[in-house]
């Protein structure tokens, strides 16, 4: 059976998994992306002493952020279905000052290896875009969250990408053509509040943040290069046209005229019921 066109559905099956490790870490280091994460984790909120689960933790960028927020009495568990990403996350977390409060496990969001009501908060950050059945993952996140706890999800929304380029028609054709072939729902971010309600959660809140770049940072450059590469792979344009398209962005940067923005939607809701606060390593 042919591999799914979205490589993040099975990183281990890709020809060069190390490329995805590097891309996730590069995104994590991008200042505007780090600011997006900080604002979302404050919005959830993640508190000191919390036991927190991150579904689809990748290389552990968010896990490391969470470990600082929960403090010495808190606990952070990250899970990911990719063996390569789990190995990378464990290695990167070992050198973190708060490594003692971090655990990373190999598991799928559709079948979490935890008992009911174990976590104060369960999060999935830029994950639901990549899974075949987001509601199934959310039901599992709800199950392992204690009553009164928070479930938080954040996704980008490719329908909100705005970028300067001399050829607007070509840009629209590449973006729409690639996204429609890779993602079941390219406009993932805007559906998050509805998914949380469908999962039986209450007090749904939404925060919209904007990723902005005017200098072609490493994350943005990689994002555009992947779009060009996939446009060639899917037969949307030929290689020369894709390179000319990328060169158009480079010229705009040199002129100080480059702009790319994209919305990231973060939705948070509460599991019905009340219980004692869950903290510490017992989660």
Tell me what the structure shows:
This protein has 283 residues and is of the alpha/beta class. It has a single domain (16-270), classed as Vaccinia Virus protein VP39 (Rossmann fold), CATH 3.40.50.150. The chain contains nine helices and eight strands. It has helices spanning 17-29, 31-43, 61-70, 83-94, 134-144, 168-182, 192-198, 218-233, 239-254; strands at residues 51-55, 75-80, 102-106, 119-125, 145-156, 162-163, 202-213, 260-270. Strand 4, helix 5 and strand 5 (145-156) form a beta-alpha-beta unit. The longest helix has 16 residues, at 218-233. The protein is globular. The termini are far apart. The model is unreliable at 276-283 (pLDDT under 50).
Radius of gyration: 19 Å
Beta-strand residue fraction: 15-25%
Output the CATH class name: Alpha Beta
The H-level CATH homologous superfamily, spelled out, is Vaccinia Virus protein VP39
The CATH topology corresponds to: Rossmann fold
Summed up, the domain count is 1
Helix/strand/pairing class, anyone?
alpha/beta
N- and C-termini, Cα separation = 38 Å
Subunit arrangement of the protein:
single chain
Q: Which of globular, elongated, flat, extended, rod-shaped describes the shape? A: globular
Short description:
Mean pLDDT is 95; it is low at 276-283. With 283 residues, the protein is of the alpha/beta class.
What is the secondary structure topology, with strand pairs?
Blueprint: H1 17-29, H2 31-43, E1 51-55, H3 61-70, E2 75-80, H4 83-94, E3 102-106, E4 119-125, H5 134-144, E5 145-156, E6 162-163, H6 168-182, H7 192-198, E7 202-213, H8 218-233, H9 239-254, E8 260-270
Parallel strand pairs: 1-2, 1-4, 2-3, 4-5
Antiparallel strand pairs: 5-8, 6-8, 7-8
């Amino acid at each position: 059976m042919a591999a799914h066109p979205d490589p993040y559905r099975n990183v281990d099956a890709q020809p060069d998994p190390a490329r995805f490790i590097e891309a996730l870490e590069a995104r994590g280091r991008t200042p505007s992306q780090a600011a997006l994460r900080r604002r979302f984790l404050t919005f959830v909120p993640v508190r000191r002493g919390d036991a927190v689960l991150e579904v689809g933790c990748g290389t552990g960028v968010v896990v490391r952020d969470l470990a600082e927020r929960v403090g010495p009495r808190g606990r952070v568990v990250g899970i990911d279905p990719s063996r390569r990403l789990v190995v990378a996350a464990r290695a990167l977390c070992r050198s973190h000052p708060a490594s003692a409060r971090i655990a990373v496990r190999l598991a799928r969001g559709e079948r979490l290896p935890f008992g009911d009501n174990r976590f104060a908060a369960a999060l999935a950050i830029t994950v639901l875009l990549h899974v075949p059945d987001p509601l199934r993952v959310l039901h599992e996140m709800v199950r392992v969250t204690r009553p009164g706890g928070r479930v938080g999800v954040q996704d980008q929304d490719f329908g909100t990408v705005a970028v300067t380029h001399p050829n607007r028609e070509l840009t629209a054709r590449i973006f729409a053509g690639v996204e429609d072939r890779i993602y079941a729902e390219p406009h993932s971010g805007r559906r998050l509040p509805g998914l949380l309600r469908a999962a039986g959660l209450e007090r749904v809140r939404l925060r919209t943040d904007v990723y902005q770049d005017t200098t072609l940072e490493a994350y943005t450059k990689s994002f555009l290069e992947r779009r060009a590469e996939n446009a060639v792979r899917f037969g949307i344009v030929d290689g020369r046209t894709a390179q000319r398209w990328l060169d158009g962005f480079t010229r705009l940067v040199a002129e100080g005229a480059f702009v790319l923005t994209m919305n990231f939607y973060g939705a948070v809701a509460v599991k019905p019921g009340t219980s004692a606060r869950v903290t510490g390593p017992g989660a």
